[in-house]
Amino acid sequence: MDIYVIETKGTDYSQIEKYLSFVGSTRRAAVKKKLSDEAKLQSLTAGLLVRSEIAKRMGIDMKKVAFCRGAHGKPYVRGGGVQFSLSHTDGAVCAAFSDGDGDIGVDIERRDRKVSERLKQRTLSDNEMKAVHSADDFIRIWVKKEAFLKRTGLGIAQGLRGADTTLLPDIAVYVYGDYYIGISGKCADKANIIHITFDELLSEFKV
Questions:
Q1: What is the pLDDT of residue 108?
Q2: Local confidence band at 169 (pLDDT 50, 70, 90 cut-offs)
Q3: φ/ψ of residue 109, rounded to 5
Q4: Which of 28, 98, 196, 206 is the most exposed place for a label (fewest CB within 10 A)?
Q5: Checking DSSP bridges between strand 82-89 and strand 92-99, what pairing results, if any?
Q6: Sheet holding 105-110, edge to edge
Q7: What pTM does this model have?
Q8: Is 158 a residue whose pLDDT tops 60?
Q9: Do residues 5 and 92 lie in contact, with contact meaning Cβ atoms separated by under 8 Å?
Q10: Res. 161: pLDDT tops 80
Q11: How many CA atoms lie within 13 A of 101 on its CB side?
Q12: CA 89, CA 5: separation in Å to the nearest integer?
């Protein structure tokens, strides 16, 4: 499993807006609906990263990459064995890719995210509550929990408390600079974390 991370801090949406035509109509619409330029930047970056990497893994032209959605809205690649998952947070976008190893999920959060007691009570299982002694402990559990729910396609609407990370197999958390990255899937504890720059990503597209 490979996890690609792009840090968006210091980049403006106006710098990559011209690449909007390289993503599909659904992604373009999603980008345009975002209220802030930062949200637009993250959404477009995610779309470009996924399209580029899947095309390379499938050995096809980027224009031929087609996406569908499962019963719970989880996106997947039409006709391909490549599994992927996306996440973004303040200052960073990440995407996980796996070739034929089953469903995967990824989540990224800042390590300094503020956490309220109310959020802990609403999202942690009884077992997890006993293991949380700081905001840092909470974020580590949070990213694993969200990664698992993205892997299953159920999403947080199904209830975060029900996904008890103390009982779940195939989940791991990694430290990446100012961020924690949670991963759910086969061999999650052996994932490759790969940093790429905007220049490296955009070089895949000809404008």
A1: 96
A2: confident
A3: -145, 150
A4: 206
A5: antiparallel
A6: 105-110, 179-184, 171-176
A7: 0.90
A8: no
A9: yes
A10: no
A11: 18
A12: 11
Q: How far apart are CA 169 and CA 56, in angstroms?
A: 30
SS3 173: strand
Q: 25-33 vs 37-58: helix axis angle to the nearest 10?
A: 160
User: What single-letter amino acid sits at 20?
Assistant: L
Residues facing residue 7 across a β-bridge: 92
124 CB-near residues (< 8 Å, 6+ apart): 132, 138, 141, 160, 161
Interatomic CA distance for residues 57 and 100, integer angstroms? 11
- Kindly report the CATH class assigned to 2-202: alpha beta
On the CB side of 51, CA atoms within 13 Å amount to 26
Per DSSP, what are the bridge partners of residue 91?
none
pLDDT at 79: 74
The Cα–Cα gap between 85 and 74 comes to: 9
Per-domain residue ranges for the chain?
A: 2-202
Cβ partners under 8 Å of residue 37, min gap 6: 12, 13, 14
Mean pLDDT rounded to a whole number for the chain: 88
Give the H or E element holding residue 92.
strand 92-99
Measured CA to CA, the distance from residue 110 to residue 149 in angstroms comes to: 19
Query: pLDDT digits over 100-155, tens only?
Result: 778 899 999 999 988 888 888 888 888 888 888 899 999 999 999 999 988 887 65
Indicate if the pLDDT at residue 185 is higher than 70.
yes
